[in-house]
Amino acid sequence: MSYERDNIAKLQAYVPGEQPQTGTVIKLNTNEHPDLPHQAVIDTLRTFDPELLRRYPSPTARPFRELAAKVHGVTPEQVLATNGGDELLRLLLTVFATPGGKGIGVSDPTYSLYEVLAGIQDVPVTRVPRLDDWSIPGDFAKQLNDAGVNLAFIVNPHAPTGRLESVDTIRKIATEFNGVLVIDEAYTNFAEHDCLELVREGSGLDNLILLRTLSKGYSLAGLRFGYGIASNPELIAAMDKARDSYNTDALAQALACAAIGAHEEVSASWQKIKAERQRLTDSLIKRGWAVLPSQTNFILATAPAGIDHAVRIYQTLKENGIFVRYFNHPRLLDKLRITIGSPQQNDALIAALDNMN
Ligand SMILES: *Cc1c(COP(=O)(O)O)cnc(C)c1O
């Protein structure tokens, strides 16, 4: 006897990147930051007052939202704090994707969690394939409008290719699309530009939400803290009604404030990762790989000898304690997604590759 809803019974669960629990492996598979969190975060953790654990936290993470608003040039009413960026995605589905409706739209390939969340909400996914250069087709909004979709997701800079779309491209899509457009900026800290100007006052857009997370740029994947920034406070107010009453905890709020308060100093680490990204790209190209220019903290690299080669390298690296990501997607079978690690980790990866030949 099975008791769950039919769509849950049919659901394929999200498959996270492998998280081996031994300390000795080199993890270049889930886009974590190689450095520890900023010292301000560590100090806040060490001096955290247990009295704050006894009491309920701010239900809306007000101090964090005020700080984030100041950093980004928006109002606190445009910011929603969530338990990881993933909770924001779930809220977006709950609030904007009508059960029995036309579902969500994505540019394919994309973050596989979107599809799982759509399955939970029991709505379909309309996939618009990216072009050969991984750009978004010019009629993206039109295709989704024609399909009757009213919630769309674009990862920008894009995962898993690292490509960045211009602000003008995003503005055009938001203007044309008849629904809520989510720009997932999980990797924006490593990119040349973001889309903040499109959510600031005067953008003229009422349907845009940016996703941000502390998991990647701030070395806080274990903390579970993300947030949304909307061009229109009404979108935030709608999601505020549907979230858990205390969706971010007191400790997470305090550490998140410390992290974003240190954003200028943390940005030095983004520069280091960008330099390592260039070095790793050059090393791989020298060894016969094709590597797309990336605006993220990972690269998508095509193995010198095709599909079997990518799988073989993935497996051999894993046997050597180095984890990278392989995607079972028709357009990605000859490729590996490699997180930019510390200089030592990147050197170990290159050494392991050289040892295979
Ligand atoms: C990492 C990531 C997120 C959010 O991750 P959290 O750890 O839940 O904050 C969202 N979108 C994409 C594409 C990501 O890679």
Explain what this protein looks like in three dimensions.
This protein has 357 residues and is α/β, with parallel strands linked by helices. 39% of the residues lie in helices and 14% in strands. The protein contains 13 helices and twelve strands. The chain has helices at 6-10, 39-46, 51-54, 62-72, 85-96, 113-121, 140-147, 167-176, 233-242, 250-261, 263-286, 306-319, 343-356, and strands spanning 26-27, 79-82, 104-108, 125-129, 151-155, 180-184, 208-213, 226-230, 290-291, 298-302, 322-323, 335-339. The strands form three sheets. A seven-stranded mixed β-sheet has the order 2-8-7-6-5-3-4, with helices on both faces. Strands 9-10-12 form a three-stranded antiparallel β-sheet. Strands 1-11 form a two-stranded parallel sheet. Helix 8 (167-176) links the parallel strand 5 and strand 6 (180-184). Helix 2 packs antiparallel against helix 10, helix 5 (85-96) runs parallel beside helix 6 and helix 11 (263-286) packs parallel to helix 13 (343-356). The protein is globular and about 55 Å long. The chain starts with 5 loop residues before the first helix and ends with a helix. The model has no long low-confidence stretch (mean pLDDT 96). The chain binds pyridoxal-5'-phosphate. Pyridoxal-5'-phosphate binds next to helix 5 and strand 7.
